[in-house]
């Protein structure tokens, strides 16, 4: 092993990091490694957190630490490597699914890894929809606060105008002042109407998002139920086929036994 000597302030510092790196072989990922990785992702659920947040980074670090301490398989991973590995196998899974959908309808056998990636993908999608709904709710609350502040400012303008006119000794019944006070009231009513319209639009938008999310969840549940019914039907058909085959075998054995008895009787 070669070493590089750096002389600083009379001391000698040995830098062996590059040599050590060269002695460590990269980890080889297998399907079983990927299965354990996906299981940990489902348990930790890093997709719950905002992209780039500290909590999301901690979740991926926890996954890497758990895998490195595994007794079943040997792992040598870090936060970044587990993130990149899952992104890779998820992209391959999606590409394979798209290819199967475009084919004649035949698809390869579904493995445990496929099921895990599919479940993670669905949970990621649901988490993103929830984040969008929460963001809409926060925006609606912000708009409400702004509308309330605008209403208060409009009311303050009307109150300040009346107080100023009173302090100046002006007659509030004077036509000119009455017109000015009327204009302030009209401005306030117009601004309040506009804020109420904005709030109503935001509420309708939020309701639409919730309804779409519920409809999507219902469709997914219906699809899962349909898949289960189809699987049960296939199993039932297989069972019926096996029963038919057993019955035919019994009939054949009975006919053979009958022929044997007839043959012995003739002798």
Model description:
By secondary structure, the chain is mainly alpha-helical. It has helices spanning about 15-25, 30-45, 55-70, 80-100, 110-165, 175-265; strands at about 5-10, 10-15. A two-stranded antiparallel sheet has the order 1-2. Strand 1 (about 5-10) and strand 2 form a beta hairpin. Helix 2 runs parallel beside helix 5. The protein is elongated.
> Could you give the order of the helices and strands?
EEHHHHHH
Portion of residues in beta strands equals under 5%
Radius of gyration: 37 Å
Number of strands: 2
Mean pLDDT: 76
Keywords:
267 residues, 6 helices
Present the secondary structure layout.
Elements: E1 4-8, E2 11-15, H1 17-23, H2 31-44, H3 54-68, H4 79-102, H5 112-167, H6 175-266
Antiparallel strand pairs: 1-2
Helix pairs in contact: 2-3, 2-5, 3-4, 5-6
Short précis:
By secondary structure, the protein is mainly α.
């Amino acid at each position: 092993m070669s070493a590089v000597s750096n002389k600083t302030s009379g001391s000698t510092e040995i830098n062996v990091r590059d040599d050590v790196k060269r002695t460590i072989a990269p980890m080889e990922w297998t399907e079983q490694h990927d299965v354990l990785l996906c299981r940990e992702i489902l348990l930790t659920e890093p997709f719950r957190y905002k992209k780039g947040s500290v909590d999301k980074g901690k979740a991926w670090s926890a996954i890497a630490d758990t895998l490195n301490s595994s007794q079943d398989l040997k792992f040598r991973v870090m936060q970044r490597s587990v993130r990149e590995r899952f992104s890779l196998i998820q992209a391959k899974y999606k590409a394979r699914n798209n290819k199967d959908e475009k084919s004649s309808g035949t698809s390869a056998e579904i493995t445990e890894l496929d099921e895990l990636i599919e479940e993670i993908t669905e949970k990621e999608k649901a988490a993103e929809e929830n984040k969008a709904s929460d963001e809409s709710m926060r925006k609606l609350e912000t708009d409400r606060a702004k509308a309330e502040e605008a209403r208060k400012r409009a009311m303050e303008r009307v109150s300040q105008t009346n107080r100023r006119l009173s302090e100046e000794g002006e007659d509030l019944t004077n036509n000119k002042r009455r017109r000015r006070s009327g204009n302030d009231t009209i401005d306030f009513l117009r601004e309040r109407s506009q804020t109420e319209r904005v709030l109503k639009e935001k509420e309708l938008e939020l309701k639409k998002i919730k309804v779409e999310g519920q409809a999507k969840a219902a469709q997914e549940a219906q699809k899962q139920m349909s898949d289960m019914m189809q699987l049960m039907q296939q199993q039932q058909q297989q069972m019926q086929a096996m029963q038919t085959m057993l019955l035919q075998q019994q009939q054949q054995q009975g006919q053979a036994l009958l022929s044997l008895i007839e043959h012995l009787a003739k002798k």
